[in-house]
Design a protein that fits this description.
375 residues, alpha/beta, D-Maltodextrin-Binding Protein, domain 2, six-stranded mixed β-sheet, five-stranded mixed β-sheet, 11 strands, 50% helix, globular
Length: 375
């Protein structure tokens, strides 16, 4: 009897689910990147998860940069409901308010925070509330932001010649974006802002001498190795950088609470699942860049990284003095990081500790495991 009742309940639930699936909601969203990039794969992964979690009742139609509006216009297009949503990066909006860059994690990783710390600040330290406040109250935009894409740690960039110290890149014309471009300007670089899809054509025309995009698989897909052979990593400019999913505010209110939760949950799952896949892709890409394309992948000189952090600290202090909301966000990040970062540094061994034991840098052989003693 119990098995029969259970089967009947299952059939009823399946029927109800199928009935709900017939009333489909479809949302049109555009990315700020071309479809060929793995950043766009993050977008399609999310759309696929939304479709499966909703049983097909909620569909996200994904579109690459430029299909409806240019890459840097998706925020305003979402606000005006030209698009239902967008897959983009908050640091593109620093022209509206420099605090937008802080929502990505910010230069220097937000006082030393890594990706998990930055997400912790969003979900456990009030960051997401400030994120929504920025768009809703400060910028007066009718959009809902959700963190979705961990695009880092990013490489320092690609150069036409070796960079041995800070003086070597002064005067070079380099593609940079957002608030980090302002920091590099202070360090003597001449920065040019452009979408990812325009970088290689600009390099081929000699418009720029160097460029930063992401690193690893992303840079391989764009073909940086066909223009430059000197690739430097790491960078401090986007050590932790988190991209966003935007949904028009009226569209969001029109979704059911379950549909809203599906989108939130799918975004969180996408963040993790895409990230771990991406790290393997990056490792494979570095191997291919070295061995197949003859790229010299080099360590960024430490004095450049230190100079960047100092220049960022200066810019941050100046902006905080004249932008109350920027200061509010910086203070929130500092307060959260002041507790989490020192504790994490104390508890966690340096990544290099075990890594160097098994995979020594400089070509040394890894330590061999001793055979177990016979009983």
């Amino acid at each position: 009897m119990w098995h029969m009742r259970k089967a009947l309940v299952g059939v009823a639930c399946a029927a109800a689910f199928a009935g709900g699936a017939q009333a489909q909601t479809s949302l049109k969203m555009q990315a700020s990147w071309p479809a060929a990039l793995t950043l766009y794969d993050n977008f399609t992964f999310f759309a696929d998860r939304v479709g499966k979690l909703s049983g097909g009742s909620l569909k996200i139609e994904t579109m690459p940069a430029g299909q409806v509006v240019p890459a840097f216009e998706v925020l305003d297009a979402t606000h005006k409901k030209v698009l239902d949503g967008a897959h983009t990066w908050a640091a593109y909006w620093t022209g509206k308010n420099k605090a937008a860059a802080l929502m990505t994690g910010g230069p220097g990783g937000g006082f030393g925070m890594d990706f998990m710390d930055a997400m912790g600040w969003h979900y456990e330290g009030g960051g997401l509330d400030l994120y929504q406040e920025l768009y809703r109250d400060i910028l007066k935009l009718n959009v809902v932001p959700i963190p979705i894409l961990p695009a880092g740690p990013q490489a320092f960039g690609w150069f036409k010649r070796p960079i041995k110290n800070l003086a070597d890149f002064k005067g070079m014309k380099c593609r940079q974006t957002g608030i980090t471009a302002e920091v590099f300007d202070r360090m003597g670089m001449k920065t040019v802002n452009m979408p990812g899809g325009e970088i290689i054509p600009a390099a081929q025309r000699g418009v720029i001498d160097c460029a930063e995009w992401v690193g690893g698989i992303e840079d391989l897909k764009l073909g940086f190795h066909n223009v430059w052979k000197y690739h430097y990593t790491p960078g401090m400019h986007e050590f932790t950088t988190i991209a966003e999913l935007l949904v028009n505010g009226d569209v969001w209110k029109g979704l059911s609470p379950v549909q809203q939760e599906i989108i939130r949950s799918a975004a969180s799952e996408t963040f993790l699942r895409w990230w771990v896949r991406w790290q393997k892709q990056n490792a494979d890409a570095l191997k291919e860049l070295r061995e197949k394309h003859g790229v010299q992948i080099l360590r960024t000189p430490p004095d450049i990284l230190t100079a960047f952090l100092k220049a960022w600290d200066e810019l941050s202090a100046e902006e905080s003095a004249k932008n109350p909301f920027f200061k509010k966000v910086v203070d929130s990040q500092r307060a959260y990081a002041s507790v989490v970062v020192p504790a994490k540094r104390f508890y966690y061994p340096p990544y290099s500790f075990a890594a160097n034991h098994y995979w020594p840098e400089g070509g040394a052989k890894p330590a061999a495991a001793k055979p177990a003693a016979k009983k």
